[in-house]
Predict the 3D structure of the following.
Amino acid sequence: MVTTAQASVTGVTNGRPFSHTAAVQTDEIAKVSIHAIFRARESAIVAHVLERMERRDRIVLILLDGRRTIQDVIRLLHRSEEEMAQVLVRLLKSGFIDYMGTQST
């Protein structure tokens, strides 16, 4: 199943900040961003926000620390790429995470 969501994406690429709104498909996120790094926004990791989130989203959010790749989070949580992509879409759509770039290989 392919899910599409409207998301506002902000982050840093090549040392320059960017921001844009785009339609995001979960299968694209699963394929493209396996090595992507996201960071939870400070405004999202406060008690009143966290307690309103679904447990699976909250756990992923807490693990998105600006150092771990999506692949790292998938391994830690034993989740599928598709499930992780769906969580990322929800977190992006809610404005809870920032894209930091990809891991250098």
Notes: The chain has five helices and five strands.
